Amino acid sequence: MVDNIDLKSYAKINLTLDVLAKRKDGYHEVEMIMQTIDLSDKLSFSKIKKGIEIITDHPDVPTDNSNLIYKAAKMLFGEFGITEGIRVNLTKRIPVAAGLAGGSSNAAATLVAINQLWGLNLSKEELATRAANLGADIPFCINGGTQLATGIGTELKILDQAPEIYLVLVNPPFEVSTAEVYGNLDLHKINIHPNKDKVLEGLKDKRSDIIIKWSSNLLENVTLKRYPDVKRLKEKVDSLTSKALMSGSGPTVLGFVRGIKEANKVKNILEQELDNKHHIVVSKTNNKGIEEI
Ligand SMILES: C[C@@](CO)(OP(=O)(O)O)[C@H](O)COP(=O)(O)OP(=O)(O)OC[C@H]1O[C@@H](n2ccc(N)nc2=O)[C@H](O)[C@@H]1O
Ligand SMILES: Nc1ncnc2c1ncn2[C@@H]1O[C@H](COP(=O)(O)OP(=O)(O)O)[C@@H](O)[C@H]1O
After folding, report:
1. Residue spans of alpha helices (H) in 101-227
2. Where would you tag: which of 20, 27, 69, 179 has the fewest CB atoms within 10 A of its CB?
3. Does ligand 2 come within 6 angstroms of the Cβ of 252?
């Protein structure tokens, strides 16, 4: 059995994000079409004698037991009585607390790595069941691609693969808490919900124009109101691209574009018009889950 493994974990966007109801436990029933994109973190895992050590190049990522990597490792070590340890070297490229599921995808990679390094022989479904105990977005990250997420986001159905769609991601220089956004959502005040069936049709017919036209995120109702900077950013990105959309609970805004040329052009304009604390990345949809490098 090998002692080291290097994995890539991909960011996600929400092509649609609908919230149907608030549950008694404070969580919300959602309906989301989730999509991985070509923006990834690199994680190098190695067995060590004991402990869970996290090393990262990103100053905002905690390296203690609040890191989702730590939580994922601790959970599997406990369940399977593993007494050795693990060192994880995280190269962070996915913006943090951005609505792009960076931490969730790192946790998914950790489950995959430990399964492989210690020969636990868990199937992807068995890993996803365990992932749901750590965070709502983590099960999706295991298989990635295009999936419909229901329940609190952990019940998944693999959908027709999205066509290649280019986008420009703009992450402003502040974080938005997912719990705060859900906590400030008043469903009684919302009467327009995303039409996921139209996006499903677009996926079936590989029509990126239809997918883009009907893409929609209900949480914009909360985040754009509470953070006027995100509203202004969305308007700016919208004026330069086919359409702008917020990812997850925000604050990242993405603009759909027709191809790599237009993407780079829009990126250049935004780099000139926004201050350099904004993180601007050209990306595209992909069909990748956790992947060995
Ligand atoms: C909004 C979404 C859309 O993909 O993503 P992000 O913006 O975080 O990337 C997800 O629903 C977020 O998933 P994730 O960030 O994994 O959520 P968790 O860690 O499980 O929960 C953080 C907090 O968000 C709230 N929460 C989360 C999921 C859900 N279905 N209902 C909720 O009310 C709860 O208050 C919870 O305490
Ligand atoms: N491995 C990790 N990478 C990034 N953030 C992490 C990680 N583990 C825990 N966190 C914490 O989780 C929070 C949410 O991060 P992240 O998953 O990047 O965003 P989001 O939930 O918006 O998609 C951050 O505030 C960060 O401090």
Report:
1. 102-117, 124-131, 138-143, 178-183, 196-204, 208-214, 220-226
2. 179
3. no
